[in-house]
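From the thread on structure requests for the teaching lab: each student submitted one protein with a one-line request. Submission from student K.M.:

"Model YlxR domain-containing protein from Raoultibacter timonensis, tokens only."
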Amino acid sequence: MVEMQDKPKRQRSCIACGGKAGKGDLHRIVRASDGTIAFDATGRAAGRGAYLCSEACLEKAVASKRLDRALRASLTDEDYERVASDMKQAIRGATG
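Reply posted by the TA:
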């Protein structure tokens, strides 16, 4: 009999620091097909996604415009504020 081997989990990269982690360990920002930008708490929303590992990396990605490039969109200050607020709330909710 041939034993089934477990496939290694696919690693994703943080767009700011380049750190690699599993999908569940990173936070996803998504650009939907209608152009809206949002924090994706489930990690399953349809659209182009970008992964970040922490609040510090979010700030770094915003300052260097890496988030804009990764999502192939021009984000407004309102987009940044909304995404940052949602991400911080999700991080704090997960840690207690």
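TA comment: Residues 11-95 form a domain with the Hypothetical Cytosolic Protein; Chain: A; fold (CATH 3.30.1230.10). Residues 77-95 form the longest helix (19 residues).
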